[in-house]
Model the fold of this input.
Amino acid sequence: MCFPFKFEYIIIEPSSGDSISDQLSDCIGQYELLIKSQRAGFNVVRLSWFYDISELDKGISLSRLINDSMPDKNMPVCAQTFIPQKPLNGNHVELLVLGVQSEGECGMRNNQLGGISFQMVESTDMKWLFFGGTGSDGDSRQTKGAAEKVFNNLSEVLKWENLSYKHLLRQWNYIGGILEITELTGAVCQNYQEFNDARGLRYHQEGLMNNFPAATGIGISGKSVILEGIALEADSQTQVFSLHNPVQQDAHRYSNDRLIGSEVESTPLFERGKVVFSHGQGHIWVSGTAAIRGENSIKGNTQDQTKLTCDIIDLLVSNENLVEAGLPPKDYIVEAVYLRAYVKYLGDGEYVRRYLKERYADIPIHALQADVCRDELLVEIEAEFSVQ
Done:
C-alpha cells in the first residue's frame, strides 16, 4: 500500500545564466541530477514551471523551449504545468518538483489527453491522479469559454481513469487577467467571476454539489486559463475531510455582494482546506488564503495582510479545528511542509519571503508575483501540512 506516505516539494532555482533559455537549461540539468540520485520509494509525480512570460521571445512557448533543451534525454515523464507567474527572487524561471515518498509498492503510469498531462499512482487501496497542463487560451472577453475548454479536458481525463469530479481533492486555477472587468452587451463581467461561473456549471453537471476540493484561484500573465490538481479514490480505511475556518465564511457561501458581475451564476466553489487521513497520519491542503474575515477583506499594507493570513491558516490547521472537522480527538502533531505566496507588488516580495521563512522554518517556500482575486488584497498564501 502507499501509506504511510509523504509529499515532498523541491524548488529548483537556476544557479547560472542571464537569459531565460540559459536558466531553463540550468534547471533541467539540476533536475536530471535529482532523478539520477533519487532514493528508493521516491517518485516524481508533477513538475510545475513558473516563469516570467515577458522574457520569452514572441511566439515561443516555455514547453517548446523545454522540449528543445531535453532532446534524447532519458527522463521520466510525469504531469507538467507551465505557469506564467514571475518568481520574486529575480529569476526568470523556476521548477517546482512534487514527489511522493511511499512505503510499499505503488504502480506508476502517465498519459496525456488534450491539453492535460497526468500521472497515476496506484496501490491496492488508493488511486491518486496528479494532473497539469498548458491551459486554454482566451482573452478578457472569453475567460468563461477558455475555462469551459480546460474543464472539458479535465472531464475527459477523469472519465479515462474511471474517476469523477467527486474525487477532486486539490485544484489550482490560474486565470489570465483575473481582475479585468469588461462590459459585453450591457453586462459587466469580471474574469474571475467568468471562471467561477464556468466552474460552477461544470460541477453542477457532474453532480458535485458539496464537499468541494481545496483550491486556489489566482492571476497569471497572459490570457489563458490553466488547471492543475490532485484527485483521490481510496478505500474505507482512508478518511477525507473538508476544513472550515471559524473566522472565514466558506467561499461557496459568499453573498452576491462579494461577487463582481451583473449576471452572476456561481460563488467560488472550493473548501478552505482538505485533509486525507489514514493509518494514523495524513496530509492537509490549505486553499489559497488571504486577509479575509467573514467574507470581507481586511485592508492594510502587505505586512499586516501577511501576518493576518498566516494567523488564519494556523487557526485552520489547529487541533481544535481538525477535531471539529471529524478527526478523532487527539493532540496532533501538525507540521508545515510547503508554502507558496502570491504577492501583488514586486517590491513586497522580499518581506513576504523573509517573514514566512522566520515563521515556518526549514521548509520549501515559494514566492511569486500575481494578482489576487480582489483588488484590495495584496498577498495570498497556500500551504500544506503533515499531520499525525
About this structure: The chain has one domain: 5-387. The chain has a mean pLDDT of 92. The two ends are 18 Å apart (CA to CA).
